Amino acid sequence: MELDERKIKILNAIIQTYLETGEPVGSRTISRFTDLKLSSATIRNEMSDLEEMGYILQPHTSAGRIPSDKGYRFYVDNLMKVKPEEVVRQNEMMVQKVDKLEQVLKQVVKLLATNTNYASLITAPQSQKNKLKFIQLTRVNEEQILAVMMLEGNIIKNKILTVDELVEEEEVVKLNLLLNTYLQGLSLQEINMELLQTMKRQAQGHRKIISDLIDTIVEAIQEEDDTEIYTSGTTNLLKYPELADREKAGQLLYTLEEKQGLNELITAGENDLKTIVFEKANTTGGAANMGMGPLGIGTKIQKRDFNEITKDEAYDIHMKYTHYRVDADLVQTYFEKSADTIEWLEDMGVEFAGAFRYFAESAATWHIVKPENGVIGPRAAGPMVRIMTEKAKELGAEIYLETPVKSLIMEDGKCVGVHAVDKNGEEIEARAKAVVVATGGFGTNKEMIKENFGYDLWENFFPFNVPGTAGEGLNMMWEAGAQKYGANIEMIYQLKDNMNWFLMDAVLRQPNLLINQRGDRFMNEDRMGNTTFTGNAIDLQPGHYAYCIMDDGILKYYRKNGPDIFDIVHPEEAFDAVGPEFERAVEEGYDGYFEADTIEELAEKLGIDPEKLEETIEDYNDMCDCGYDSQFNKNPKFLHPITGKGKYRVGKFYIAAYGTIGGVRVNKYCEVLDKDLNPVPGLYSAGSDANTIYGDSYNFTLPGNTMGFAVNSGRMAGEAIADYIDELDD
Fold first, then answer.
1. DSSP secondary-structure letter at 482?
2. First to last CA, the chain
3. What would the mean pLDDT of 304-324 be, rounded to a whole number?
4. Which end of the chain is more exposed for a tag (fewer CB within 10 A), N or C?
5. How far is residue 320's CA from residue 325's CA, in Å, rounded to a whole number?
6. Domain range for 14
7. Which residue in 301, 299, 295, 289 sits closest to 383, CA to CA?
8. How many domains does the chain have?
9. Residue 597 lies in a domain
């Protein structure tokens, strides 16, 4: 049987109609849309032949036909041979379709304006929240795969994907099954990191293709998907007395006609305040220089990346997480301001790499600053700090480096300035109408850590070593009458001196067998992605540390399939690059890492009874073999037996922290409160000193919170101070 000209025309008509409608195509449809002038019966016979030849298929007996992989491939091959003038004609047809939609929307918005005597506004439809109906992959040639994606509303997206490896026909079928099994019925907002990791594992040797395909899907749906706004009747606004003021009316008309953000209507401008900054370090930013970026909720970046979360959703998540043991007004004010703050930073020139999750179960609230070296990781926020510093100088701020403040000046219960000492030892008395204390907590103060939390700094507690976070600001505010309140730590876990062993830290913190010094398991290891949960659990163990055990067999599995737990901080490439770091740790005698050839040798190095260790490993392996964790109900897909294949490899994880949070109580204006919850006049606090919004556990499910609160509380304090000074001057 040959594919003659009539069959080719019918096949092309089927494929084009199916791509436009997403519905199986019947013979009557083909008879209406082709120039063959054939009866439905004749077309049905030709369709039967095409089905027999493998170019089309019938989903079920009562349905029309849809293209097969073979049909798509033939269609693409022919499309690639289309004459240039035909391409132009097709493009013109697409433009006409768009223009028709635009005309309809323009007519509707004009009709609304005419009938209501109000200004009217309509937004064009968007595809970003639509659910995927199906994905079809077809191999075009050895280097290209056609991806056809249909969304709800019969929106069709097509994309040619270039591949670096040969994908056989049967593998394309498997990939089609995998993609539709996991993604069908989901919006892009619902496609999270954990799901992608699962798909990558299922794809086995084609993990890169899956990653590229997801990127392709996102790119295709994002193309030309910016919200289009149509307006009419704006001059009707001039009829209303509340807009008789020409300036007000002008602003609103400009906003409606130019589609500018509402922020321009409610922002009066920069507060014209004289500001002096005393910084004890030799550079600005303090702990922020170690960070990666701030939290944002409801931002344009999240909407662009299909990771939108509303302020109400974030508020509910946070308040439930903290059991309502926090200031609800402070949390809500911070969250409501966060999106505007991201735009405020962008207006200064700060660029963001995107909105990210910390781990799979977290929300994509972490707006990581675009790193200068192109690699997302610690210290990414450095460019943001520098841009903010230059902006402050541009607005007239005086910044004194290496000039620590020694005390606050209090008069009649009001804070009216500070005493400082410059780098030459000269004393400075700076008088002010208001003072903001933002000194980053007390994460490196050995005495305060011991007094407040009972830990021995650098012995059983290993925070980020951020110079200068010694708690002087908190002590000054407490002496000034501030309520001592909410001091806590951003509980995490890590290897000792983890920044010097960064790759090893990433590899060893996977959800394998986690035991304490007694040789006992103590938690569900699949929770190890949440550093706070794990840190809390380790904190309860003897010595405040734990051992995580894996072997070379598990390491090989991770190298092939990727990690069980993925987070944005630790690179997946660590599993291939960690070898030299293992060797260096042994050579240097690093006491945060152990390796051994036998359980007996490992037990001796860990200081655990050999029989107990062997019993724990055997029990764990039995649970791995049967696929059920009878002790903690660990996810079966993370149950990898410890067989000792190659070497046993163990990381010694201690409790740690990015730093301390809280210490003084503030309200939503960032006014420092006394023991009776009254503001201390003229005294404000921002950043980690005032960060009391977590209760007993830092909320990593909304990542970016530390820097987010720092930047937003700084703005909240500045705006409140402007109002406070206005009242003083009146």
1. P
2. 94
3. 92
4. C
5. 9
6. 5-80
7. 289
8. 5
9. yes
Per-residue pLDDT of 466-506, as tens digits, reads: 778 899 999 999 999 999 999 999 889 999 988 889 899 99
Instruction: Compute the average pLDDT of residues 101-122.
Output: 60
Q: pLDDT at position 475, please?
A: 96
**Are 577 and 639 part of one and the same domain?**
yes
Residue 19 resides in a domain:
yes
In a domain, 9, yes or no: yes
Other Cβ atoms closer than 10 A to 309: 20
CATH code, domain with 168? 3.30.390.60
Its sign, for the CA torsion 696, 698, 700, 703, is: positive
Q: What is the mean pLDDT of residues 612-624?
A: 96
User: Is 157 found in the same domain as 31?
Assistant: no
Return the half-sphere exposure (C-beta side, CA atoms, 13 A cut-off) of residue 394: 8
**How would you label 518-536 residue by residue, b for 16+ Cβ within 10 Å and e otherwise?**
ebebbbbbbbbbbbbbbbb
Residue 701: how many CA atoms within 13 Å on its side-chain side? 16
Tokens of 353: 């790499």
pLDDT digits (tens, 9 = 90+) for 426-445: 899 999 999 999 999 999 99
Residue 726, domain member (yes or no): no
Same domain, yes or no: 145 and 203: yes
Helices within 292-436 (DSSP H only): 300-304, 311-321, 328-348, 382-394
Q: Tell me, yes or no, whether 54 and 107 share the same domain.
A: no
* DSSP E strand stretches across 329-452: 352-356, 366-369, 398-400, 405-411, 414-421, 427-431, 435-437
Supply the pLDDT for residue 673. 97
Please report the beta strands in 629-715, taking only residues with DSSP state E, as ranges in sequence order. 648-664, 671-673, 679-685
- Per residue in 252-262, pLDDT (tens digit) is 444 444 333 32
Half-sphere exposure of 505 (CA within 13 A, CB side): 18
Measured at the CA of 507, the angle between CA 502 and CA 513, to 5 degrees, comes to: 130
pTM reported for the whole predicted model: 0.64
Spell out a b/e string for 627-666, using b for 16 or more CB atoms within 10 Å of the CB, else e.
eebeeeebeeebbbbbebeebbbbbbbbbbbbbbbbbbbb
pLDDT of residue 114: 61
Strand-pairing partners, residue 547, are 515, 652
- Span 689-704, pLDDT tens digits: 999 999 888 998 999 9
CB 145 within 8 A of CB 166: no
Task: Let me know: does 384 contact 293? Beta carbons within 8 Å.
Answer: yes
d(CA 354, CA 335): 18
CA dist., res. 334 & res. 705, Å (int): 10
What is the distance between the alpha carbons of residues 385 and 350, in angstroms, rounded to a whole number? 9
- Co-location of 57 and 107 in the same domain: no
Residues 55 and 115 in one domain: no
What does 565-609 look like in DSSP terms, one character per residue?
A: S-BSSS-TTHHHH-HHHHHHHHHHT-TTEEEESSHHHHHHHHT--
